[in-house]
């Protein structure tokens, strides 16, 4: 079982790699799109701005490789944080930008509804979900680590995997068949994070 | 609900961990790696590691050491000390830190904050303000581990840093650091009121009630060092106390 972590210059790659290794995966951090072909699972990590992230995916040739491996061949893909947001059709961070379009919706900035609601949303917050292979063995209400100012506004409710209370409520995990995205950082969420990573690794 | 964070701060000087009083009289309290491992198994919410002599010693952070420490740390790790330019930020993040705490470089200009926010996102920029009251009884910011007065008023400067793109403010009271007499609630409140980004209270925690007071004053998180190094108090017990007082805290569910 080989996991490819995409290095497109936007990541806390070290943390993600170590967490997947800790979960027993055969991990390859790849900076060449052709190396996706030999992977069984794909991870799109990322911290930083949407516009810059998409620009890097385009200029380094990742968009075609992801279309081939994730959309056509349906390999399990996990987007983390910015990597999750890039799955959207459109992002509004740093100007309106076209995303990968794997999951219908837009990525918008949080609008604070009261002085206590601070932006960015930083810290541990719970996720609520019904059931999903990604959350197997996790109790609804488990806390994960978040740090972000933008969030994914999905078009179709069917793509929602979990929600989290902040600024009202937002979608904290998405999916579309083999494609998954989480706004939080499983690699920084200790045991629950490792559980989620193990669940992702057992998808096929 | 978003939980408040209890964050142990590790101060790193030369090769060991230290803790002092009022940014002085440093005592060695152990080595970094075992501490990170212990905190990791005790499920702390986050860790802050500050290399307190990097800027004064005019040297870059020890990237290899950060890499080794990050390997044992499966919670968010902030690194500060010697963060003077964008290239250093890149290397520190690459080595495995999740956020950088920028301090002395803030006073040359706030451009490093905006450049880091543009390139890596606001979420990884912590503006670290070391403050104390001057003779005129006004608060002022100090750089270079509290040794150089900057003449900046922390309240207006915090607003300026938020505009520049800082994602959080780490607010440390120099006079209360290591004294365990409680946080400086007045300045925590003043700054929390004027910015919309999270404020991390630091300097002075001596017991769990102090943490509760800082959170009530408007802090989103509480950082502490001496209380965890020199007393029997722990982050886990701190959270139990806070939960009893009605503050939302994380508890592991696996």
Tell me what the structure shows.
The complex is a heterodimer of chains A (204) and B (254). Chain A is of the alpha/beta class. Chain A has one domain (2-201): 3-Layer(aba) Sandwich (Rossmann fold). Chain A has helices spanning 13-22, 50-59, 62-72, 82-85, 190-201; strands at 2-6, 26-30, 41-44, 77-80, 90-91, 97-98, 105-109, 121-126, 143-148, 150-154, 160-165, 169-176, 179-182. Chain A has a seven-stranded mixed beta sheet with strand order 2-1-3-4-13-12-11. In chain A, β12 and β13 form a beta hairpin. Chain A is globular. With 254 residues, chain B is α/β, with parallel strands linked by helices. Chain B has a single domain, classed as Aldolase class I (TIM Barrel, Alpha-Beta Barrel). Chain B has nine helices and twelve strands. The longest helix of chain B has 11 residues, at 154-164. Chain A binds chain B through residues 12-15, 18-19, 22, 47-49, 52, 82, 112, 115, 118-126, 137-139, 141-143, 145, 147-149, 165-166, 185, 187-195, and chain B through 1-5, 40, 43, 45-46, 67, 70-71, 74-76, 93-96, 98-99, 118-124, 167-168, 193, 196-198, 220-221, 250-254.
Secondary structure: helix percent of chain B: 25-40%
Low-confidence stretches of chain A: none
> CATH first level of chain A: which class?
Alpha Beta
CATH topology of chain A: Rossmann fold
Main sheet summary of chain B: 8 strands, parallel, barrel
Figure out the total of helices of chain B: 9
Q: How would you classify the helix and strand content of chain B by structural class?
A: alpha/beta
Beta strand % of chain A: 25-35%
Give the SSE order of chain B as H and E letters.
EEEHEHEHEHEEEHEHEHEHH
């Amino acid at each position: 079982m080989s996991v490819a972590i995409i290095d497109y210059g936007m990541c806390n790659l070290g943390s993600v790699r170590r967490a997947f290794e800790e979960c027993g995966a055969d991990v390859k951090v790849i900076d060449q799109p052709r190396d996706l072909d030999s992977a069984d699972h794909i991870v799109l990590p990322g911290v930083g701005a949407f516009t810059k992230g998409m620009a890097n995916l385009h200029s380094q040739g990742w968009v075609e490789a992801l279309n081939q491996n994730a959309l056509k061949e349906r390999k399990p893909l996990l987007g983390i944080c910015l990597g999750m947001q890039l799955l959207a059709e459109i992002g509004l961070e740093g100007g309106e930008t076209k995303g990968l379009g794997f999951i219908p919706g837009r990525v918008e900035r949080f609008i604070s509804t009261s002085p206590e609601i601070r932006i960015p949303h930083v810290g541990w917050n719970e996720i609520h979900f019904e059931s999903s292979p990604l959350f197997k063995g996790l109790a609804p209400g488990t806390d994960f680590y978040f740090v972000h100012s933008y969030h994914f506004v999905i078009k179709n409710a069917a793509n929602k995997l979990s929600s989290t209370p902040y600024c009202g409520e937002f979608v904290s995990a998405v999916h579309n068949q083999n494609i998954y995205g989480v706004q939080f950082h499983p690699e920084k969420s200790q045991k629950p994070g490792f559980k989620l990573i193990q669940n992702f690794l057992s998808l096929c | 609900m978003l939980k408040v964070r209890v964050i142990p701060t590790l101060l790193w000087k030369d090769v060991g961990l230290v803790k002092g009083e009022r940014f002085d009289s440093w005592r060695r309290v152990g080595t970094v790696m075992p501490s990170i491992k212990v905190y990791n198994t005790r499920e702390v919410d986050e860790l802050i590691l500050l290399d307190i002599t990097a800027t004064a010693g005019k040297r870059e952070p020890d990237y290899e050491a950060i890499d080794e420490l990050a390997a044992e740390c499966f919670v968010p790790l902030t690194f500060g000390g010697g963060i003077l330019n964008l290239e250093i930020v890149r290397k520190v993040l690459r080595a495995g830190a999740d956020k950088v705490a920028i301090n002395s470089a803030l006073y040359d200009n706030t451009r490093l904050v905006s450049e880091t926010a543009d390139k890596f996102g606001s979420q990884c920029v912590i503006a670290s303000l070391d403050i104390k009251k001057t003779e005129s009884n006004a608060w002022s910011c100090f750089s270079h581990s509290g040794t150089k007065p900057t003449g900046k008023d922390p309240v207006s400067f915090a607003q300026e840093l938020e505009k520049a793109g800082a994602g959080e403010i780490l607010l440390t009271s120099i006079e209360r650091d290591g004294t365990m007499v409680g946080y400086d609630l007045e300045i925590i409140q003043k700054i929390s009121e004027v910015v919309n980004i999270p404020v991390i209270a630091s300097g002075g925690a001596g017991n769990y009630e102090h943490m509760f007071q800082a959170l009530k004053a408007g802090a989103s998180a509480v950082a502490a060092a001496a209380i965890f190094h020199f007393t029997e108090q722990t982050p886990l017990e701190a959270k139990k106390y806070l939960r009893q007082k009605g503050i939302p805290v994380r508890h592991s569910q696996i």
